[in-house]
Amino acid sequence: SYIPVSYHGDTTEGNKQDYSLVSISRLIETKDVQTAVKSMQYLPGKASLDVYGDGPRLPRLQGLAEEIGVSDQVSFKGRVPNEELLERLPDYDALVHPASFDPIGFVVLEAMANSLPVVVSEGAGSSGYVDQGGNGYVVEPGDARGLAEGVKDVMASKKDMGDRSRKLIETEFSVEASRKRLNNIIERAKSNQHRS
User: Fold this and answer.
1) What are 7-27's pLDDT values in tens digits?
2) By CB distance 3.0 to 4.6 Å, which of 15, 43, 59, 121 could disulfide with 98?
3) Which long-range contacts (CB under 8 A, 24 or more apart) does 156-160 make?
4) pTM of the model
5) Which of 127, 126, 123 shows the shortest CA–CA distance to 101?
């Protein structure tokens, strides 16, 4: 379950109650968007979640939002072109990506590149880029309450976490960093070839 690194609920930024969250994924079981929907019941009533994407679980997710009383907080936006999504990302406070399985999780990296803090599950492939309490939080898959607590902590220092997200992307995914990784791979391959 989620264990906060620190909670700064008394900061001005942390007292903001109108959290604007975004989730972007195909609406299938392994993306676990239902956990994001369920997490809304643990957040202040002014919190909102915009869900971008389509898929076979849409009717079930809409029904869940209605059933647990958060349909006024959750908006299903459908599928939107990537360019338009990238333009909209800065309008949000944080990305939530509770996927139980997502090998790469490009959406998390795109959000981080746009200075958004992220709250992801351990199932998101890009969770390895999340510095717990530094640029976001990693929670256990299926833990709606933990996801909500992660969001609350992110909101306590959103700007700092967003800045750290962007800096990480700039350093880890720069041309120079990519070149170094590729050179390391080539050197290991050469080394293994000589051993054979």
Assistant:
1) 333 333 445 568 899 999 999
2) 121
3) 156/7, 156/8, 156/9, 156/11, 156/13, 156/14, 157/8, 157/11, 157/13, 157/14, 158/13, 158/93, 158/94, 158/117, 159/13
4) 0.82
5) 123
